[in-house]
Amino acid sequence: MRRSAVTAGLAAAALLVVTGCSSDDGPGPLGGRSAPSGPATSSAPAGVTPSASLPPAKGTVRVVSTLAEGLKSPWGLAELPEGDLLVSSRDEGTITRVDAESGKKTVIGSVPGVAPAGEGGLLGIALSPAYASDHMVYAFFTTESDNRIARMLYDEKKPADEQLGSPDTILRGIPKGNIHNGGRIAFGPDKMLYAGTGETGDRGLGQDLKSLAGKILRMTPDGQPAPGNPYPNSLVYSPGHRNVQGLAWDADNRLWASEFGQDTWDELNLIEPGKNYGWPVVEGKAHKAGYVDPVVQWRTSEASPSGIAYAEGSIWMAGLRGERLWRVPLDGRESEAPAQAFLEGKYGRLRTVLSAGGDKVWLVTSETDTRGTPQPGDDKILQLKVS
To answer: b/e for 181-209, b at 16 or more Cβ within 10 A?
Structure first.
């Protein structure tokens, strides 16, 4: 084991079946948290058919291989059509291609304008839904003045380190902070771009519908408010978030998001348009009218969640401070069984999870982000087989 085992791990997993919270590495500078948050009330989207079979109550994780080592502050991860990976470096502002068989690393370019500081820098990346024809890579990053989203042409025919084109900024003006910049982006089944943002430490921004901070945003690939958004002419898809770190869709196209709480509860939420997820009025499960309760909540020491992925009927959630991978088996809109922890303390802080189809999952460690304790070979990309 990389660190001493958490002796209460199994008991905590049973206790935390339906709980969720935290900041990147524990309590933030704002003092005690508010109370938890309220229940989901709306029904499943029209046309959604429940999955035919449920995942087993108990799952498994096997580390098949260590694909790559020596990555510096890795954050975002995207899989190219041929299976190779792109990984962003938060602090170096670069994107590196990793060969999916040999693990060979090739820097394809830097993103101009990235100004890393605190939890900001080059964060999430995603491939265009039309990547086969447009070869566009999208990135969420922090500048000297704001957070923004840009797209860049990836031209594999150019020399290494020059393959990434100039950024075409599609959205600017997302508030930035030393903490709570969010940063996860992903294209949904509707081919719209979703982005999780943080409230930058300014608690009130989560409830301010005029601000892009503390929200999940939904936009067209050009950065315009997506058709069908709940607020007219607005990018806001859901408000009331503290610091959204993970986005994933299940087999029935429901959107799930992981989120840091403050001192008490980290969260896994089922996201629906226009629903309010409570921060800073509530945190965790409050059963308070007007606010949506998380489906699962954890003590901040057990999670401090980052990226999530959907595979084999479950949500898989990386834990930073918790240094473990959580499995949440789903039964439609609910957790089908208690959350289950894997890899506790074995690889340190865990940042990003990416489904590679079937039972294959990629997992990225996060020991070189200034909050970990790097060991030889950090940071790593691990290949997992899950059930």
So the answer is: bbbbbbbbeeebbbbbbbbbbbbebbbbe
